[in-house]
Amino acid sequence: MSENLRTDIGDMLKATRVPLLFLSICWVVWLVDWNYALNLYHYGVKPRTGMGLLGVLFSPYIHDSYSYEHIVNNSSAMFVLLWALFYFYKKIAWRVFFGIWFIGGLWLWCLSRDVFHIGASGIIYGLASYIFISGLIRKNINLMGLSMIVVFLYGSMIWGILPFDYLLGSHYVDLSISFEGHFWGAAAGILLAFWYREQGPQRKKYMWQLEEEMGLEPPDFEGQLRQQEMESAKSQSAQTKIKYIITKKSNESKE
Question: Which of 163, 65, 158 is nearest to 113 (CA)?
């Protein structure tokens, strides 16, 4: 096994630490809440209330204790997206993660329905939007490929940002789903994608691209070679000597 491959495998394994730790806390909280019926949703985000402001910190760990579907669905998406963030964006991963968490959470606290909002869905939407937009604006081949994977796996998440059926007057929309959390999480991810566009992995640039950005003219190797050939030809011409032999024509003729 080559050294580079060993390093890549090591980085991949290290990137699993944060999602595993985060999800472990979520599952412990869910099991305790489910087993003892603590109704921890009261520690979620309750917009425009003092206690609800603490929910910005606690709500991502809290899930519906009456069913396991909520936490199971969030766990798979969170693991994949959070791993991708810490593997491809090592230097800024923590800033992006907490930025999505708290910016999206504060927007949710300020601008949403007056109900309890719980779950890690907002962070999931933020990670998905950050990875997708960041891959496009950086024009990095690896990140663009990752963006396509995100779209393929989680493209349908766009329908969870706004309750389109509800806006059209449908009575069959599950308003227990925090579409505001999805929306503000995605908005935070897009904001941070542009904010940190100059940090983290970048597109590979060639020498001529760097010279253009610096306003430097690339060297004219072809012109220099032509000039050298002309000078060499002149030098050889100057060194060439032509000798003429002149003889007199004899006036005598032989009979």
Answer: 163
Q: Write the DSSP symbol of residue 45.
A: B
Q: What is the pLDDT of residues 47-56, one digit of tens each?
A: 999 999 999 9
Q: How far, in Å, are 11, 14, 15, 91, 186 from residue 88 at the CA level?
A: 10, 12, 9, 9, 19
CB 43 within 8 A of CB 59: yes
- State the pLDDT confidence band at 170, using cuts at 50, 70 and 90: low
Pairwise CA distance, residues 188 & 209, whole Å: 32
Phi first, then psi: give them for residue 198, nearest 5 degrees: -90, 0
Which among 145, 19, 9 has a CA at the least distance from the CA of 83? 19
**CB-based contacts of 99: which residues, under 8 Å, 6+ apart?**
188, 192, 195
Report how far residue 112's alpha carbon sits from residue 105's, in angstroms, rounded to the nearest whole number: 10
Asked whether the CA dihedral 117, 119, 123, 125 is positive or negative, the reply is: negative
d(CA 132, CA 147): 4
pTM for the whole thing?
0.77
CA 197 vs CA 21, 93, 108, 189, 193: distances in Å: 27, 13, 24, 12, 6
